[in-house]
Amino acid sequence: MAKAFKVAVLPGDGIGPEVMAEALRVLDAVETKYDVKFERTHANVGGAGIDNEGKALPETTINICKAADAILFGSVGGPKWETLPPDEQPERGALLPLRKIFGLYANLRPAIIFPSLTGASSLKEEVIAGGFNVLVVRELTGGIYFSQPKGIEGQGRDRIGIDTMKYSVPEIERITHVAFQAARKRSKKVCSIDKANVLSSSVLWREVVTGIGKEYPDVELTHMYVDNGAMQLVRWPKQFDVLLCENMFGDILSDEAAMLTGSLGMLPSASLAEGTFGMYEPSGGSAPDIAGQGIANPIAQILSAGMMLRYSFGLVEAADAIDKAVAKVLDQGYRTRDIYQKKDGEKLVNTSEMGKAIIAAL
Ligand SMILES: NC(=O)c1ccc[n+]([C@@H]2O[C@H](COP(=O)([O-])OP(=O)(O)OC[C@H]3O[C@@H](n4cnc5c(N)ncnc54)[C@H](O)[C@@H]3O)[C@@H](O)[C@H]2O)c1
Ligand SMILES: CC(C)[C@H](C(=O)O)[C@@H](O)C(=O)O
Ligand SMILES: [Mg+2]
């Protein structure tokens, strides 16, 4: 009998449902080819949760996720819900609680430049010639996103907005191990990003990372302040292998790294808990500027589904096949609008045509 895995499918808002449809078709194709079954249950999240069930993260959605082996997530948010109280909006009302409820502390965001896409990068060709492959390892359940106190206090012009950045030693230790273990399977270099010249949480971060680094003598460890890191990424991205970041620094640097590869629509992510449970989503958002037009790039969502097969289901062969199929269609010249450079040999396609091409290449 075919091996079966339960997937909670949360398409969300904006381009979320459009790119999710293509990732699900890719999963259909994997089922046929690899004798596996993905039992999918759809659930509302974000604006779709608010509109259909009155809440960004309805109980039914939480229960569907709890019953699943992994969550495949689209993206949430958009102008329609931006006037709600902050904690009820899609991002703070659904995405962040999901990360916390499921203990998804390790966010892996690989930024890989495909050889055929070097021209789509915002960097000069000579800087990225030969490609680069950076893995952002972002701490996802701590830091300034979650620490207390937080909120707006007082009245009128006397109000103050408060956010707090806290990290405990165990929180730093576990994400550091993830970074070093990932580096061991790659080019054996970890660059830890912090702001230890200003922030106390970063002073502790640097100390703990240095200590853990001694357990991995085969991996080179360097430290960099986040402002310099942001600059070095655009100056010479090839110097980096694994970038280890706290929550907010990782959020910012992963968008930057994504754009160096050509488009935010190319960058997948895996958010992992202890064990095999994970949530898989594009690093980018609901892209309200292009939603509803059928032109979004589905590659980040499809590669995220591939990461789900790799990290939560152990289906390495099928995951490799998805990665290769994406590289192949890019070599064949298929381009959604975000990565189209009007060069000879390029074929401008919409979301579903890109999905179909990837399935054909599987
Ligand atoms: N994980 C998530 O659900 C997530 C992540 C980031 C932002 N958001 C939310 O998304 C909404 C829009 O935020 P934003 O505009 O700052 O960021 P965004 O990532 O949605 O869009 C930034 C730019 O990248 C482009 N882009 C993103 N994904 C693309 C794709 N697949 N194909 C082609 N182009 C793509 C968009 O068109 C836009 O020009 C906000 O409500 C934000 O909070 C959600
Ligand atoms: C939408 C937002 C809460 C989210 C984050 O900041 O983590 C997004 O930007 C991301 O990168 O996944
Ligand atoms: Mg982000």
Which class best fits the helix and strand makeup?
Answer: alpha/beta
Mean pLDDT: 96
Poorly predicted sequence stretches spanning 5 or more consecutive residues: none
Number of helices: 12
Rg, Å, rounded: 20 Å
CATH class of the largest domain: Alpha Beta
Distance between the termini: 23 Å
The CATH topology of the largest domain corresponds to Isopropylmalate Dehydrogenase
Would you list the SSEs in sequence order as H and E? EHEHHEHEHEEEHEHEHEHEEHHEEH
Kindly state the percentage of residues in helix. 25-40%
CATH architecture title of the largest domain: 3-Layer(aba) Sandwich
The total number of structural domains is 2
Strand content: 15-25%
Name given to the CATH homologous superfamily of the largest domain:
Isopropylmalate Dehydrogenase
> What is the strand arrangement across the widest sheet?
2-1-3-12-11-4-5-10-8-9
| Number of DSSP-assigned strands | 14
Main sheet, how many strands, which sense, barrel? 10 strands, mixed
Name the overall outline.
Answer: globular
Bound molecules: nicotinamide-adenine-dinucleotide, 3-isopropylmalic acid, magnesium ion
